[in-house]
Amino acid sequence: MQFVIVTGMSGAGKSTTLKFLEDAGYFCVDNLPPALIGKFADVCFSPDSGLKKIALGVDVRSGMHFEILFSELAQLKNQGVTMDIIFLESSNDILIKRFKETRRKHPLVEDGRIEDAILEERALLEPVKNQAKIIIDTTNLLTRELRFELHKALNDEQSYKNLIITVLSFGFKHGIPSDSDLVFDVRFIPNPYYKSELRGFTGKDKVVQDYVMQWDVSTMFIDKLDDMLAFLIPNYIKEGKNQLVISIGCTGGKHRSVTLTDVLARKLESYNYSVHCHHRDIDKDALIGK
To answer: CA–CA separation, 256 vs 194, rounded Å?
Structure first.
């Protein structure tokens, strides 16, 4: 039997995760008081239950009862129950944005600020995060990408590395992405913008790709970056990092950075990492950009 605990930061995607698991055939229960987990497990594991896949959503909505979660999980493990803990994570800025957009109240907010509630929640959840087998950072994930990560994590556990890599192209004139971990400037590469026949295309078009990648500096940049990441990524995974944002910028974020972002993403995918490729500024300045 597959027994999954879904927990994590409020606003990080727990409800979406439970909906995906329900679609995947799991019997899902959300916001079960931790004190009832043991009794619920007894029912689920009884010979006549008919249940094969179970997912429980547990978080700080349980209030003061949340602390019981740790003793309940320890008791289940002592009874020989194997379980996977899925922890949903996200950056503070994105969590605040999501709460403001949905106008929902954070479960720990009384008279204080959302920022304070998020910090309090993060401290409360740190022990369960340390026990989690699967940590997914949804800061830069679309809903369909979250579904992909969950599917991969639950069905390919041996190769899942708890690290989601986002490769992001951008234009320096629109600002450096604030969530970047690594930023690379490719404005040293010859600019397709100054070729009138290429100006209206983007780095998604073959004519621009061929132009950008014909230069030795372009291939050398990718090779050296690939070599550096081959060293960095395993060490990030070892350290416990679960989200890596690699940003590649040119002037407008339309030509050079788009091409090189796609090339790098394909290389990283070939190493079986979870890679998501985004082009932040590709549609800005339709007639001006590079």
So the answer is: 12
Residues of each annotated binding site: 8-15, 59-62
164-201 burial code (b ≥16 CB/10 A, e <16):
bbbbbbbbbbbeebeebeeebebeebebbbeeeebbeb
Tens digit of pLDDT for each residue in 29-86?
A: 988 887 888 888 888 888 888 888 889 888 777 665 667 777 887 888 787 777 888 9
Q: Is 168 within 8 Å of 247 (Cβ atoms)?
A: yes
Encoded tokens for 259 = 């091409």
Contact partners, residue 279, CB within 8 Å, separation at least 6: 168, 169, 203, 204, 253, 257, 258, 261
Q: Which helix (H) or strand (E) holds 5?
A: strand 2-8
Residues in the chain: 290
Binding residue positions for ATP: 8-15
Which amino acid is it at 173? K
Binding-site entries for GTP: 59-62
* Residue ranges of domains in the chain, CATH in brackets: 2-155 (3.40.50.300), 164-279 (no CATH)
Q: How many CB atoms lie within 10 A of CB 131?
A: 16
Rg (CA), the chain: 22
Question: CA 171, 175, 179, 183 torsion: positive or negative?
Answer: positive
Q: How many CA atoms lie within 13 A of 110 on its CB side?
A: 2
pTM: 0.69
Of the candidates 214, 287, 276, the one whose C-alpha atom is nearest the C-alpha of residue 254 is: 287
